[in-house]
Design goal:
The chain has one domain. The protein starts with 12 loop residues before the first helix and ends in a 16-residue tail after the last helix. The mean pLDDT is 75. With 111 residues, it is mainly α. It is elongated.
Length: 111
């Protein structure tokens, strides 16, 4: 059985931008309508990446981006569940590892 490869008709750009936008969404500081802004951006990039998903005939490259929907959903879950609780999303919240509490006292000697 012979499989014929067809010409790529999509672009890798929406896939890469979607991955970068997820990182930026999770690590950006709080601002008004943050969730709404990033939700619109992430959904638009996800839709663009699915309109013409065939951007390569190399399975190793394609598989990385095809499986990206799981990180896409995880980004939404983190963004919505942590912000509802009033927590700031930190690297510890992303990885599940505990973070050290920040000491608000100034360092150095007092006179």
């Amino acid at each position: 059985m012979r499989i014929e490869l067809r010409e790529s008709d999509g672009s890798i750009a929406p896939h890469i931008l979607l991955a970068l936008a997820q990182i930026i969404a999770l690590l950006s500081p709080q601002f008004p309508f943050r969730r709404h802004v990033f939700t619109a951006i992430l959904i638009a990039l996800f839709a663009a990446s699915r309109l013409r998903p065939h951007f390569s005939n190399n399975p190793a490259i394609v598989q990385t981006f095809v499986l990206g929907w799981s990180t896409f959903l995880s980004a939404f879950e983190r963004m919505y569940s942590l912000e509802k609780k009033g927590q700031r999303i930190t690297s510890g919240a992303l990885t599940g590892l505990p973070t050290k509490p920040h000491n608000s006292a100034p360092s150095g000697r007092r006179s």
